[in-house]
Amino acid sequence: MSTSLTAADLRRVEDLLTPIDAHLHRSYPGETGTRQPVHTVYVPGDRYTAGVAPSWAEQAMETTERAGGLSAVIGAAAVPTQIREAVEAQVRDKLAREPIEDLRIDFEDGYGDRGDTEDDDVVTAARGLGRDQAAGTAPPYVGIRFKSLEGPTRTRGLRTLDLFITALAENGELPSGLMLTLPKVMAPEQVAAMAQVCDRLEQIHRLPARRLRFEIQVETPQAILGADGRATVARMIHAGEGRVSGLHFGTYDYSTALGVAAAYQSMEHPVADYAKAVMQAAAADTGVRLSDGSTNIMPVGGAEDVHAAWSLHARLVRRSLERGYYQGWDMHPAQLPSRFAATYAFYRADFPVSAERLRTYLTGAKGAVLDEPATARALAGFLQRGLDCGAISTTELTDRAGLSPTELEQVHRGHMCRKDGP
After folding, report:
1. How far is the C-alpha of 307 from the C-alpha of 211, rounded, in Å?
2. What phi, psi does 105 have (nearest 5°)?
3. Average pLDDT for 304-316
4. What is the number of alpha carbons within 13 Å of residue 130 lying toward its C-beta?
């Protein structure tokens, strides 16, 4: 068959688009394929001691037993009847086995300004973390939130970061799941400066290149919309030169900056939803993870108050999951049961249908839903997250979807197609 475009025409297209191909490949590498924790727990720096995860689990169960047991949590979380027994058993196991997935030792808002006392608290926390690591009681992800790089707190924040990394390095290897959290970011230049600091710390402590990565806390309007009308958060991701690992939404700082009255500040306020939608678009295909914020209603007091707080927390967790925010903040031990109940219910309720749709797509069989390759990747991503957090077992995955965990990951990353597909 004859064509009209000449070799010179095609060469001009290649010359125009080859640099763009390189830019897109570098800036949008896609999913990392690694586990994302379902939550981040914040503990003030002066209160962190070795064994904090088992301690939180114990406190969670004490509150739970006083308020009616895990069945009361399951009820407050509105877990569907047909999966209640399974979810309750999984929550019980999770609290005994891995009560905290991601822990942040906080030297920012949860700690305050303590002057030179902060030096001692940072080193003490780093040593406590070292003991947790040695004892095998540390959460799989753990790290530090230090003060921001704004002028008034910059020196203190960098000193705390330096002390923490130095103490960990002197104690041996850094935790494999080390997380660093940079708060109150307002400009891409602050992200670039943080990337430079990480590079220098790697050189000093002879760490592998890009060993240190960090999360950006999005809690200022300037992080969403800059004076130039551009989405600042998108520029921040790329200013980190591949070191930005996540975007965490700060519900209350952000809402306050926009003038929302305290009584109406919430993860589900329209201003919060707008900011998180912008974050979601900015992070798409970059490999940068998203985390929702927290609720300030704690499960404390009498049983009725605890149940109401569990119900609110579980509903907000479910809402975030439905909107593609698979991580959030927990600020109190008694939020752990409602976090896990809502998370496991989310995955278990939709697991049978999602697994069957993926199996149908991959085998080329006819089904009630005509799924496309992108949807197949979404189905695989859903199952992968359920597997990572423990809501779905490997046996269940194989039985229902006909896939091993390795094959599931291949589908999620777009490396495995349907049998009758290209």
Report:
1. 42
2. -80, 115
3. 98
4. 17
Phi, psi of 289, deg, nearest 5: -85, 160
Domains annotated on the chain, with CATH: 39-348 (3.20.20.60), 350-412 (no CATH)
Exposed (0-12), middle (13-18) or buried (19+): which is 162, by Cβ within 10 Å? middle
Neighbours of 272 (CB within 10 A): 22
Interacting residues of 208 by C-beta distance below 8 A, sequence separation 6+: 202
Q: Quote the CA–CA distance of 390 and 272 in Å, as a whole number.
A: 29
3-state secondary structure the chain: CCCCCCHHHHHHHHHHHHHHHHHHHHHCCCCCCCCCCCEEEEEEHHHCCCCHHHHHHHHHHHHHHHCCCHHHHHHHCCCCHHHHHHHHHHHHHHHHHCCCCEEEEECCCCCCCCCCHHHHHHHHHHHHHHHHHHHCCCCCEEEEECCCCCHHHHHHHHHHHHHHHHHHHHHCCCCCCEEEEECCCCCHHHHHHHHHHHHHHHHHCCCCCCCCCEEEEECCHHHHCCCCCCCHHHHHHHHCCCCEEEEEECHHHHHHHCCCCHHHCCCCCHHHHHHHHHHHHHHCCCCCEEECCCCCCCCCCCHHHHHHHHHHHHHHHHHHHHCCCCCEEECCCCHHHHHHHHHHHHHHHHHHHHHHHHHHHHHCCCCCCCCCHHHHHHHHHHHHHHHHHCCCCHHHHHHHHCCCHHHHHHHHCCCCCCCCCC
Q: What is the pTM of this model?
A: 0.93
Query: Exposed, middle or buried: residue 405 (CB in 10 Å: 0-12, 13-18, 19+)?
Result: middle
CB neighbours of residue 281 within 10 Å = 11
42 close to 104: Cβ distance less than 8 angstroms: yes
Q: Is residue 252 predicted with pLDDT exceeding 60?
A: yes
**Can you tell me the distance from the alpha carbon of 380 to that of 409, in angstroms, rounded to the nearest whole number?**
7
CA 176 vs. chain centroid, Å, equals 16
The residues, any chain, with a CB within 8 Å of residue 130's CB and separated by 6 or more, are 167, 168, 171, 172
Q: 366-390: per-residue pLDDT in tens?
A: 776 677 889 999 999 999 999 999 9
Amino acid 372: pLDDT: 86
